[in-house]
């Protein structure tokens, strides 16, 4: 048995939306110590978007736990395509395996991952798959582009997923979140949240802070290293 060195906490706020169209799932295997986490953000304020987000999160977490983050996202795509639901979602999935030296993260869309390193530095792990991000990368534009940042260019159903990894031995905390958190919170507030010793407290602080300023669904899942 390989006990996990990670503790997990999650929280959500519906905001002023009609529907909670975010979803998150945490899966664990006591025998191996593996933890799979998925956060999804349904595209639209509809029951169909909420269902699509839940379908994708359930399937991605299940498949990631027994395989890889890439396999998890691919399984989510297949499961959504096989359903009668025509809605879509952004996704970010992570695998924490005590027998592996790196934390794998796969995503598509505008859900994000952040990491707090052992020396107290905040790292943004993912970049957004949005038209706004594309414009910033290829022009001199900087800062928010309100009309374009919500135009998602990769999703669960469309285009390729992207994978990266983090060296597990240098990471104190990891945040997976919907854009209802990342869009509204400056880095210093995300850093403040991730320095909390209890991951539930961290997640609650982040969604509560986002809820003060915005109307979007907000979801945060925080993993904190036990050491």
Topology overview:
Blueprint: E1 6-13, E2 22-28, E3 35-42, H1 47-66, H2 69-82, E4 89-96, E5 102-108, E6 112-117, E7 122-124, H3 131-138, E8 162-167, E9 171-177, H4 179-182, H5 187-194, H6 199-213, E10 218-225
Antiparallel strand pairs: 1-10, 2-3, 3-4, 4-5, 5-8, 6-7, 6-9, 9-10
Order of helices and strands: EEEHHEEEEHEEHHHE
- Major sheet: arrangement of strands: 1-10-9-6-7
Shape: globular
Class of secondary structure makeup: alpha+beta
Largest sheet features: 5 strands, antiparallel
Radius of gyration, taken over Cα atoms and rounded to an integer in Å: 16 Å
Mean pLDDT: 95
Total E-strand runs: 10
Distance between the termini: 19 Å
Share of residues in strands: 25-35%
What is the number of helices?
Answer: 6
Work out the helicity level. 25-40%
Show unreliable segments: none
Summarize the structure.
By secondary structure, the chain is α+β, with helices and mostly antiparallel strands.
How would you describe this protein?
- This protein is α+β, with helices and mostly antiparallel strands.
- The chain contains six helices and ten strands, in the order βββααββββαββαααβ.
- The strands form two sheets. A five-stranded antiparallel beta sheet has the order 1-10-9-6-7. A five-stranded antiparallel beta sheet has the order 2-3-4-5-8, with helices on one face.
- Strand 2 and strand 3 form a beta hairpin.
Based on the model shown, name its key terms:
alpha+beta; 6 helices; 10 strands; 30% helix
